[in-house]
Amino acid sequence: MQPKPINQLFQSIRLSRTDASKLAVRTGQILPARVIKFLPENRALMQMSGKQIVGQIDTELHANQKYLMQVMETSPAVKMKVLSQKPVNDPGERMNVIMQALGLKLTKANQALLQGLMKQQIPLSKEALGQLFALGKEDALSTRTTILSEMLLRNMPMTEQVYQSLSKRLNQPISINQVIQQLENQMMASKQQTVNQIQLASSLQLFQGERSSNQILHTFMFQALREVGSGSQTTFQLFQKAGVIPSQISYAEWSAHIRAWAASQSDRFQPSGNQMMNGQLHSVPFSITGEKISTSIQQLANQQLGNSRRSLQTVLDIMQSIQSHSTITKEQHQKLKSLLQGSLLTNIKKQLPMQQTMLDQLTNSIQQRPTDIAGFLHTTNGTQLIESLTHLQQLQTAGEQRRVLLFFRGLTQPPSESTTAVMAKLLSFMELTQVESGKGKFNNLPSILSQLQQVQSQSTSTSIQAAAQQIQQTIQAMHLSMESSRDFIQFSAQLPKEMLGLNEDLWMDFEGKKQTDGTIHPEQCRIMFYLDLPRLSNIVVDMQVMNRMVDVTIYHQDPKSVRSLVHLYEQDLKAGLQGINYQFTGLHLKKLREDSNKRPVDPFPYPLKQGEGIDFKA
């Protein structure tokens, strides 16, 4: 299937939820509503978009008639303002009511656009109507209606940038590798590459296939040289953790070696472009090789505990305090009991296989004999366990170091269809294509978007500027969560087949509640991906997670033909989810309709911020 139909198919599935049991209303929205029953205190039972809610109304109406209403309040109760004193059953009548109520004077083109949105029962507001008519003026009516429908339904910022990003994703998808190759060719043709161009070329290697050891070494030495020039120790500290740089070497010694090495190079050092990659680097400090970098970085990445590193630090602090004071408090015991179990304990045992007996002895004491904990920590085994846990904690990365580790992990990960390899590539891809959230953040390894902007602004070549802008628009089309005020994230990606070692590109779509650190909440999210499999052809998998309950829908052109194969793995999926404390609620098979025009029914299945709206069950 071609990219354009895939993106449009994703949009259709993404916006037509399988669980349409809720209707979300937000302050300011204008909706057609039919009064079913009048209730005391000026309240009424109303039907909107096929769902029933109870709200207060400010006008006497006739039952079983449809009126146009605007949501004035959602908390503590829904309050509706009636915009039409007479019933309005025709979309044209509703449009006239909106224009009169909001004081709008519209051109024929905008009237047609508004009528198209109202036919789809898209929730509207005065604020949105004041902005949407300025967007996509040059596009065809059908294109504008499609894009603006998604923006309104998903409560996206009504800006030209978001509109163009959606337009790019839906209507003009292109091969990322193709535009990267165009940019690299343009930069190679320039007489003198800038530092920003060289770093951008290094970052863009993430999108390509397997890198040679020489390419990896070039990228590492350029990053080391760049940071030495700025006085940063990020790469030095990370690669010392990984064992690439000897632990006894100080930063001053490292800096001196790097500067001396750079001065000894007869040719100008440039890590980008195939032509320049062919040259071998000579006399690299401490005999560092691309093979050593790859092995060490992959090993360090496998030792990361992720979010569990904070819990490990808490456990260590408590254990060291108990060892120092030879006593344990009730609070310390309860904390250890709650932390040293589940995924944290499993991860620690995985990283410290030689200390499993010691860990079992400690956890048994925690569960059964708390008074023995202090005595155990004074034994040789207890001391060794604390030392091993301390070393494991020292290997953990965060902030800038974590970013550099993810980049080099993706860079050194060989193409593979294994889950581990795909996730490593995906994490690197997502990290390096995001937008920095703070001023001056990630100066050592800025995002690809920042690098593209720098190259575009500094270059005098129109061809380089055009190629950089094209990649920038392609990546921006994947990220539609740039506004800090938004309480959810939406991320779509076309991952190049070369990046993952696949036969065809992998298409993925993520959305979910935003956590405080900017990541997607694992208990409130949705993931879709498209696969073109040799025997099964086109398949879309839609997984929705709500409060740790997982619902999976698989779309295929002939659902009956894959039913037996799908259900073969159903029990394994259920057991796997139960193992990580998730509840499997169902697996559904549906027909894949590439030309689906089903009307979207719900913009987002997750709770809104307080004051923005409220969900009502049918």
What are its keywords?
five-stranded mixed beta barrel, alpha+beta, 17% strand, 618 residues, 14 strands, Hook-length control protein FliK, single chain, disordered C terminus
Structural class: alpha+beta
Computed Rg: 29 Å
Low-confidence stretches: 17-22, 267-278, 436-440, 481-485, 595-618
**Total beta strand runs:** 14
The percent of residues in helical segments reads 40-55%
Distance N terminus to C terminus?
A: 37 Å
What's the pLDDT, averaged over the residues? Answer: 78
Shape, please? globular
Number of helices: 26
Strands side by side in the biggest sheet: 8-9-10-11-12-13
Residue share in β-strands: 15-25%
Largest sheet: 6 strands, mixed
Topology:
Layout: H1 3-15, E1 22-26, E2 29-39, E3 43-48, E4 51-57, E5 66-73, E6 79-82, H2 91-102, H3 108-119, E7 124-125, H4 126-132, H5 141-153, H6 160-171, H7 176-189, H8 195-204, H9 213-230, H10 234-241, H11 251-264, H12 274-277, H13 290-302, H14 308-325, H15 330-339, H16 342-351, H17 356-368, H18 373-377, H19 380-394, H20 399-412, H21 419-433, H22 448-458, H23 462-476, E8 488-495, H24 497-500, E9 506-514, E10 520-533, E11 537-546, E12 549-556, H25 559-568, H26 570-579, E13 583-591, E14 613-617
Parallel strand pairs: 4-6, 12-13
Antiparallel strand pairs: 1-14, 2-3, 2-5, 2-7, 3-4, 5-6, 8-9, 9-10, 10-11, 11-12
Give an overview in words.
The structure is a single chain. By secondary structure, the protein is of the alpha+beta class. Among the domains are: about 35-170, no CATH class; about 175-305, no CATH class; about 310-395, no CATH class. Helix content is about 50%, strand content about 15%. The protein has 26 helices and 14 strands. The strands form three sheets. Strands 8-9-10-11-12-13 form a six-stranded mixed beta sheet, with helices on both faces. The chain has a five-stranded mixed barrel with strand order 2-3-4-6-5.
